[in-house]
Design goal:
This protein has nine helices and twelve strands. The chain is of the alpha/beta class. The protein has one domain: TIM Barrel (Alpha-Beta Barrel).
């Protein structure tokens, strides 16, 4: 396989994005379905940590998938906000992986998952100036090592150690000062807006559209009317679809991926739900800005 540096993978001349349309996350349970025939997806997303360790048949199967579909990576263990120094050996492995499989984009969570050992969860970070100042050079270091942009996702959270600024201001400062991209997780915005009592439409509207590289949409679990849990284990709810539509109206259509990590349905059902993304993208391409139906 010919290896390419990420900078050689050109953005679309018409949209400015490195991928387009609607995509799904590739789960190992669905690998045979994607190998047996071409599936109608515009791109796929994988966690590189789930594929880096393997050789043999799994490596060959993954190489075949990567040759058929535009590929983006969504990492799990970078721990960009962690207290430990960045793992340069791990970054080197990622860099080789991205070149080998022509990965078009690398995203991670704006959180941390390690501190003298892995925590196996995504931990919230303080929304304060000290955290911004800590994150910015680490993000720039990752981008320098990988020679590609790091795209950071707004995470769902249920408590924050300390706050010196609102979540939105914190996110905006990190992205602008680090000069990195944004993975807009629409479900996370909705979940956080319910759990922490802010207006989801206002949050979406205030984001810098020029920083959005792609989006995520997923299902959640309602534990209480004022407590939603981001699970990726069920179908997307109507308010989240409506918020995605609003995001397109505010910022233009951006590539969007359907996340499903648990209670996996058949591929046909997954792709049917993914088609709703395409429908909203097509509708947004012919309409102007508007109000979010979920607004009171």
């Amino acid at each position: 396989m010919v290896q390419h540096t990420p900078s050689e993978l050109q953005r679309s001349a018409s949209t400015g994005f490195v991928v387009e349309g609607a995509g799904v996350g590739l789960r190992r349970e669905h690998l045979k379905d994607f190998l047996s025939k071409s599936q109608p997806v515009d791109f796929i997303e994988v966690a590189p940590e789930n594929w880096l360790p393997f050789g043999g048949r799994l490596q060959r199967d993954f190489a075949e998938i990567a040759s058929r579909y535009p590929l983006v990576c969504h990492g799990l263990s970078l721990s960009i906000a962690g207290p430990d120094p960045l793992d340069l050996a791990f970054l080197g492995e990622l860099k080789q992986f991205f070149r080998q499989y022509q990965v078009r984009l690398y995203s991670e969570h704006l959180s941390y998952c390690s501190g003298q050992g892995h925590l196996y969860d995504l931990m919230p970070i303080p929304f304060c100036q000290q955290a911004v100042d800590y994150l910015v050079p680490r993000i720039r270091q990752v981008q320098d090592v990988l020679e590609m942009e790091l795209v950071l996702e707004n995470i769902s959270y249920y408590g924050v150690p300390t706050t010196g600024m609102p979540e939105l201001e914190f996110l905006l400062q990190v992205i602008e000062k680090a000069d990195c991209g944004l993975l807009l997780d629409v479900n996370n915005v909705y979940v956080n807006s319910v759990n922490h009592g802010y207006d989801a439409a206002d949050f979406i509207s205030a984001l810098p559209g020029q920083r959005i590289r792609y989006g995520h949409i997923a299902g959640h679990y309602q534990q209480h009317e004022a407590l939603l849990i981001d699970t990726h284990g069920s179908a997307v709810t109507d308010p989240v679809w409506q918020l995605l539509q609003f995001a397109y109206q505010q910022h233009g259509v951006f590539p969007t991926l359907l996340e499903r990590d648990f209670n996996l349905p058949a591929v046909s059902e997954l792709l049917s739900e993914m088609d709703q993304i395409r429908q909203l993208q097509q509708q947004a391409s012919t309409r102007g800005t508007g109000d979010w139906p979920g607004a009171a």
